[in-house]
Every structure is written in C-alpha cells, then in structure tokens.
Amino acid sequence: GDKRNGGFIKKVQLPKDKTLAAFRIEEEDWERFKSLCMKAGVSATYAITAFVRHSIKNGELEPQISLQKNDEILRKKREMLLIRLSLYLDEIERVKVEATKEIEELRRVL
Questions:
Q1: What is the pTM of this model?
Q2: In a 3-state reduction of DSSP, which class is residue 8?
Q3: Hey, how many other C-beta atoms are within 10 angstroms of the C-beta on 48?
Q4: Residue 99: helix, strand or coil by DSSP?
Q5: Is 51 exposed, middle or buried (0-12, 13-18, 19+ CB in 10 A)?
Q6: How many CA atoms within 13 Å lie on the side-chain side of 110?
Q7: What values do phi and psi take at 9, rounded to 5?
Q8: Which of 45, 48, 50, 59 is deepest in the core (most CB within 10 A)?
Q9: How far is CA 89 from the centre of its chain?
Q10: pLDDT in tens for each of the 110 residues of the chain?
C-alpha cells in the first residue's frame, strides 16, 4: 500500500452513495477536535457530517454552532438584567416618593 506520514493507508470500498473527503488541518486542532468528539460520545466523522447537514439544511455556514446556545444564554441574561434594572428603578421611584412626602411634612411642621 501507499506509505504516507510513516503509516500505511489501506484502500476501503465505500458504498456508492458515499465519498471519502480529505482536508488539511493543524495536527493539534485535529487531536483536540477528536478529543471533544470522544467526550461527546460521537466519532469525528459523525460530528463533521452533522455540521455539513446542518449547514445545508440552514443554507449557510455556521462555523461556531455553539454560538446559538451562547445567544440563548445571553438573551436570558439580558432579560434577567432588564428585570433587575426595572426593580431598581421601581425602588428608586419609591424612595423618591417617600423622600418627597417627608420633605413636604417637614415644610408643614416648620
């Protein structure tokens, strides 16, 4: 067989509807990607194929699909911050009303 990178490449008969895709990637990136896949319990082939199918389905590339999850987290955090801000503003208004009442009462007494 062919010798490449010090190893043997064996010829594999693929089903007619499949193709063997090859691409260049930094070795460290590839090893880290395979490690992520292993932790997720999927093969690198499965993860890459899922990305390709997702991109085709949506008609666009999304190199960081996890951004969707991040967007959802950020949206929820923004909602919570707006609620907290609203509560703070309500509290400021309440204190303002109380202070105004106290000032009016002091003016009446003096």
A1: 0.45
A2: strand
A3: 15
A4: helix
A5: middle
A6: 6
A7: -105, 120
A8: 48
A9: 32
A10: 444 555 555 666 778 888 888 989 999 999 999 999 999 999 999 999 998 998 888 887 765 555 666 677 788 888 999 999 999 999 999 999 999 999 999 999 88
